C-alpha cells in the first residue's frame, strides 16, 4: 500500500502538461532562424539538456525562480502551483515548455504557447508566445532561440493561423531573426493594468 502510494506520487511528479512526443517531431528546417551549430528540440546540443513540456516536479527544479527573472511571480506555494498545473491541463491550450539542465536538475529556459480558439479565419486558432525566459548564465548556447522556435513551430504544427507576442523594444531585433514581424500599421501592444502597482 505504502509502495503503491509512492509509485503514484512519482508518476504524478513526472506528469507532463501536454504530450511530449510532438516536440520530438518538430521540423526545425521550417524556421527562418539560423542555428550554428544546428540544434533542435529533439537534439538541443548537449546530452545534459532536454526540451520538454512542464512537469509537476518543476516546482522543485527552479521553474518559478527562473520566471521571476522575467517579472514578478509572487510567493507561489506547491499547492497553488499544482492547482494551476491541473487547471491548465484540463482546459487545454497551455503549452508551457522548458529546457532542463539534467546535471543539476534545474530549469534553465522556458516559453509558453497559449492557443486561443477563434471564430475568425474559419474557426481558426491563434497562438500567443508568452513568458520567454532563459537563465543568463547559459548565454551563448542559443537557448533563447531554441525555446522560442520550439513553441513557434508547435503553434504551426497545432494549426494556428498566426503567432503573436509583445516584448520590450530592445528584443525586437532578436524576434525578427526568428521570423516575427512588426506589421506596418498593426504593431502596437496596449495594456490596461488591474493589479495594485505596489
Ligand atoms: C513580456 C512577455 C510576456 C510576459 C510579460 C510580463 C514574451 C514574449 N513577452 O511581455 O509574455 O507575460 O513580459 O510582463 O515573453 P508584466 O509582468 O509587465 O506583465
From TrEMBL:
Keywords: Acyltransferase, Transferase. Pathway: Nucleotide-sugar biosynthesis; UDP-N-acetyl-alpha-D-glucosamine biosynthesis; N-acetyl-alpha-D-glucosamine 1-phosphate from alpha-D-glucosamine 6-phosphate (route I): step 1/2. It comes from the Eukaryota. Its EC number is 2.3.1.4. The lineage of its organism: Eukaryota, Metazoa, Ecdysozoa, Arthropoda, Hexapoda. Residues 49-198 form the N-acetyltransferase domain. It comes from Papilio machaon. The keyword Acyltransferase applies. InterPro entries: Acyl_CoA_acyltransferase (IPR016181), GNAT_dom (IPR000182), GNPNAT1-like (IPR039143). GO terms for molecular function: glucosamine 6-phosphate N-acetyltransferase activity. One of its GO terms (biological process) is UDP-N-acetylglucosamine biosynthetic process. It catalyses: D-glucosamine 6-phosphate + acetyl-CoA = N-acetyl-D-glucosamine 6-phosphate + CoA + H(+). This is Glucosamine 6-phosphate N-acetyltransferase. PROSITE patterns: GNAT (PS51186). Belongs to the acetyltransferase family. GNA1 subfamily. It is an enzyme of class 2 (transferase).
Amino acid at each position: 500500500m505504502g509502495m503503491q502510494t509512492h509509485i503514484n506520487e512519482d508518476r504524478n511528479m513526472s506528469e507532463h502538461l501536454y504530450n511530449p512526443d510532438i516536440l520530438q517531431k518538430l521540423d526545425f528546417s521550417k524556421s527562418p532562424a539560423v542555428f550554428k551549430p544546428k540544434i533542435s528540440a529533439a537534439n538541443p546540443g548537449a546530452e545534459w539538456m532536454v526540451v520538454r513540456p512542464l512537469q509537476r516536479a518543476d516546482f522543485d527544479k527552479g521553474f518559478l525562480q527562473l520566471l521571476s527573472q522575467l517579472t514578478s511571480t509572487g510567493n507561489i506555494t506547491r499547492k497553488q502551483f499544482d492547482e494551476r498545473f491541473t487547471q491548465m491541463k484540463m482546459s487545454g491550450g497551455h503549452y508551457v515548455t522548458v529546457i532542463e539542465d539534467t546535471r543539476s536538475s534545474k530549469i534553465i529556459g522556458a516559453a509558453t504557447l497559449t492557443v486561443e480558439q477563434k471564430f475568425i479565419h474559419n474557426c481558426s486558432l491563434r497562438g500567443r508566445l508568452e513568458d520567454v525566459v532563459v537563465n543568463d548564465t547559459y548565454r551563448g548556447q542559443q537557448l533563447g532561440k531554441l525555446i522560442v522556435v520550439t513553441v513557434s513551430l508547435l503553434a504551426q504544427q497545432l494549426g494556428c493561423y498566426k503567432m503573436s507576442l509583445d516584448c520590450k523594444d530592445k528584443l525586437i531585433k532578436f524576434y525578427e531573426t526568428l521570423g516575427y514581424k512588426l506589421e506596418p500599421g498593426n504593431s502596437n501592444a496596449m495594456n490596461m493594468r488591474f493589479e495594485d502597482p505596489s
